[in-house]
Design goal:
about 300 residues, four-stranded mixed sheet, six-stranded mixed sheet, alpha+beta, 16 strands
Length: about 300
């Protein structure tokens, strides 16, 4: 039972958004498309206006009569251009992407729009000066790059991180809780890939640092964008000896335990992590690749 595969595509990897890369550098096309374009307004908390389970896209000309320099091009919906802009003054019924993993549902198109907008706008918030020459930058290519006064072009930064389900090769899985998480909420172990490090070595290092375990049989499962703020989660599984003592070396993990497949299945059946705050085992919401990995492992056997 040491091998298993994802039995579904992770939620945030199902995007049906047409990114229309060919339009990003076409200034004339972007200008002409603005009049009929749709606009997503998002505040710094990642919240957008929603109508039920639908993300509200308004007319782009409500922001400006001509293409706004601060807006970023997300792609197209048919012939309609889609843009996003940071707006901290939006009001009404607001929700963020995490809410759609617990209490709300979102279709694959809306998921793609939201996750792309969050990651892109988060990058722009921190990229006003060039890392190459230190001079101010302006958005170019529809917001998919920034160019400095000296002509240095930079592109959206993505931070790769591994997330790993550790199991015993049988019917037990190791789940952990960080200090800041709600009581009873457990998930997989994860960490950022360091410079000069392969994904597999990152899995080994992170698991040793976080729970003190050596792992074998490292296997890649799948990936998912995680725009909090702009990460790419790379899912793995690995095998460890449950008889080894779990130790917390880097201070990130508050507690970690081995759970049986039956316990995990019961927790999955109970719903999302917010459904029963008094449960012994709560699992991540549906938008996390951690949920897909756990569900896939639990379905085995």
């Amino acid at each position: 039972m040491s091998e298993f595969q994802l039995n579904a595509v992770p939620v945030l990897s199902r995007s049906t958004l047409h990114r229309a890369e060919h339009l990003r550098a076409d200034e004339q096309a972007l200008k002409e498309g603005w009049a009929q374009a749709k606009l997503l307004r998002m505040n710094k908390r990642g919240q957008v206006r929603v109508d039920g389970n639908t993300v509200v896209l308004e007319e782009a000309i409500s922001l400006a009569s001509e293409r706004a320099a601060e807006a970023v091009f997300l792609g197209v919906d048919g012939d309609t251009h889609l843009w996003a802009v940071r707006d901290n003054d939006i009001e009404g019924n607001l929700a963020d992407l995490r809410a759609f993993g617990t209490t709300l549902e979102l279709d694959d198109f809306g998921t793609g729009v939201l996750s792309t907008a969050i990651a892109l706008l988060n990058w722009h918030d921190k990229a006003h000066f060039s890392s190459g020459d230190g001079t101010p930058t302006v958005a170019t290519n529809g917001g998919w790059s920034r160019t400095s006064e000296a002509g240095h072009e930079e592109f959206p930064r993505i931070d790769p991180a591994i997330i790993c389900l550790v199991h015993d090769g049988g019917d037990r899985v190791l789940l952990a809780r960080q200090h800041t998480w709600p009581k009873g909420l457990f998930s997989l172990l994860a960490g950022f890939v360091e410079a000069g490090e392969s994904l597999e070595r990152c899995v080994e290092r992170e698991l040793k640092e976080e729970v003190g375990l050596d792992v074998t049989d490292i296997r890649y499962l799948g990936s998912q964008p995680w725009p909090f703020p702009r990460s790419l989660m790379l899912g793995f599984s690995a095998v460890a000896d449950p008889e080894r003592t779990v130790t917390f070396h880097d201070g990130e993990i508050a507690e970690a335990y081995w759970f049986t497949r039956a316990e995990v299945r019961a927790a999955l059946a109970a719903g999302s992590w917010g459904s029963d705050p008094d449960a012994r085992l709560l699992l991540p919401g549906s938008i996390s690749i951690a949920r897909t990995i756990v569900e896939s492992w639990a379905a085995e056997g």
